[in-house]
Amino acid sequence: MALFIGVDIGGTKVLATAVSSTGRVSRTARRTTPGRRVEARLVEDALTEAVEEIAGTRRVRAIGIAAAGFVDAQGERVRFAPHLPWRDEGVRARLQERWSAPVVLDNDANCAARAEVTYGAIGGAETALLVTMGTGIGGAVVLDGEVHRGFNGMAGEFGHMQVVPGGHACECGGAGCWEQYSSGNALVRLARDAIVAGEPTTLAEACGEDPGQLTGPMVTDAAAAGDAVALRAFATVGDWLGVGLANLVAAFDPEIVVIGGGLSAAGDLLLDPARSALRASLVGSAHRDVPPVARAALGPEAGAIGAADLARQTFRIGGTRARARLRAARGTAPRR
């Protein structure tokens, strides 16, 4: 049986998966992302280690990469990645040469949306929004049942909408971006500030009295156990999530909004305040159907599942013809 691998590369982790034609994940491998202040080679080393662990001795038919960054319309280059060192890098071709296997590349949220359309929470909805919450915020737009990539291939970069002029500095180089107020990083910052301020919280013990060691899962566990500081952090992040969603719903009027990424594991701790803030902030909410806000069905593996599915659909009829089909669909000519 042909082996199709999906790899999701984010700001903190690499997740590689072997995925069946029904979207079932049969094997996973994880690595820590080296960060954005390192050579691109080190990130690609981590990707390679994860792929090699999944492949073992089997022949790989094709590999899909879900990258947390701005991927061009041709699916060739990562133009910019706020949380990774790629800056106008020809990632697809370089990894294809390194791995000696066909490779396809897209944005991580686009891949997650593809998976949720095919196997998950979006299903048959014609118009939907996916917001992925991890280190930062990613997003994807589904129009007429298909992921809409935009003219540059960069539609759905919701996390870098400015919501607070002159606000918190963002890793993209801007300030006041939505993800600085509603993301895993924002959640940890809020909880860390409370520890530093000396507020009573179980989080101080959880991080060994070192706020710099605090992590998102620690905050999630503390909130689930009823810690007041952790619950307040989730309420704040959820409120900001709902405010941002109100703007997106006003723009796209979707049937459903799906929240994915690692932070979505918190479930209603995050989604309940987001739903309330969405309804309170959305213009005319009393005179329209407010879309449901649902948790992604495929969890943190959605990006890797979608990347594997993209690889399968692109390369299942043979490498050269499949690449020609992909270029034709994206309106680009083959390289000479």
In words, what does this structure look like?
- By secondary structure, the chain is of the alpha/beta class.
- It folds into 2 domains: 3-112 and 300-329, 2-Layer Sandwich (Nucleotidyltransferase, domain 5), CATH 3.30.420.40; 125-296, 2-Layer Sandwich (Nucleotidyltransferase, domain 5), CATH 3.30.420.40.
- The chain is 38% helix and 20% strand.
- It contains 10 helices and 13 strands.
- Strands 3-2-1-4-8 form a 5-stranded mixed sheet. Strands 11-10-9-12-13 form a 5-stranded mixed sheet, with helices on both faces.
- Strand 5 (70-71) and strand 6 form a beta hairpin.
- Helix 3 packs across helix 9 (302-315) and helix 4 runs antiparallel to helix 7.
- The longest helix is centred in the C-terminal third of the chain and has 25 residues, at 228-252.
- Residues 332-336 have low confidence and may be disordered.
